[in-house]
Amino acid sequence: MKYLNSLVFSLLVAFTAVPLVEAQEALPVEESVTTEPPVAPAAAESAPVDDAVAAEEPAVTAEPVEVGGNAATSGSLAVGEPRISTIDFVSDTDWFAVTMSPGQRYQVDLRSATDLGDGLDDPQVFLFDADGTLLASDDDGGGNLNSRLTYGVDAEQTVYVSAAGVDDSVGRYVLLVSVQVAPEEILIGDVVTGSIGPASEPNTYAVALNADDVVQISLRGEPSGGGTLPDPALRLLLPDGQQVADNDDSGGTLDSLIVFTPPETSTYIIETRAVSGIGSYTLEVGLHEPPANEIGDTAETAATLELGMSVQSEIDVPGDRDWFAIELEAGRTYTFTLRGAPTADGSLGDTLLTLLNADGQQIIQNDDDGETTNSSITHAVTDSGRYFLAVAGFGEGTGSYTLAATVETAPAGDSIRIIVHLTDGERVTLRLPRNFLSSVDAITIGPDLEDTP
Fold it and tell me: Is residue 26 part of a domain?
């Protein structure tokens, strides 16, 4: 009888346990994730499961094994299916194998999963082949420190997407590989409008550019009345996704502007995105028309700067450089100053000044003068002749500036003594700098205190 009771009890336990296990398995994957995921009995001796879980749309199952940092230990990722996972510690990387087909452009997005809490502050994405050779990478191409890159293959290939954090960034992320939508085709001279929605997804446009044409691409939003987007940003890419130019803020506003000279005739991709907020924008692509008083950036188009004088001009577009020609003499020391907003001598916030020789080769360059973001160069000249000063804004800076050139006077004691005997017998001494023939700084007249014959 005792044996029978034990048997009945065992059966009851068995039949009541089955529905509980089934209920657990029927739960959504996201709800089954805990701080310490339970280990299935059959997998008790295996490595811990990575915390990759399913995204809401579309659903993704958790990885059965830990996602490692190389091709051999990578997880799998299907095109179009987002994966949520975590960079657990500094220098941690998660690799996912993705199969790409020829004839398609793929977009890889790695963004912080801030809506799930403890999001990865600054994601960074890499693309490797099976041998571990780096194929592509991106840090902030997706806006708001998120990462985005595009890639295509000539034949079917398995590549490996590596998710990581910049510096000491750790936290949860969302990784998605998708087939890139073909960009809208536009022409030089077109003005188009668009909008950035809540997902902050960039829009892309394809435009054919001719080699050596100076092209201007402007993206205007709320700052200039071109739309309602508060802070637009631009990127210019080659067809293979390689970035060739980008701009966030230009001309002292949050609008964006790129001035670009294509090295070769090709189709380029313009990407419009939002640094923050959502809204509409106006995109315009045209040939750059320099102002009538534009100062060039070659020896032939340079303006002239006179010693002891100052000039005022403006860096009107990002990447612009103004050249000034000046004649300098050997054996003399010159100081060149470039001042802008820090000293209220213009609106250029961070200046960059370069001294070039007659062949246009750099001799010396200065960004900050040590006290402000103005620039200053002091240089002792060894060869007389024509030199050039190149004025620019640091980075993508634009604005007005003041440029000046002065020559140092001779140091104390380095002078020529001229003794003049006056008719009444009084004697005076005149002390003049050695360069007084070209620049007389001062003349001192007075009794000679030395007993000089």
Answer: no
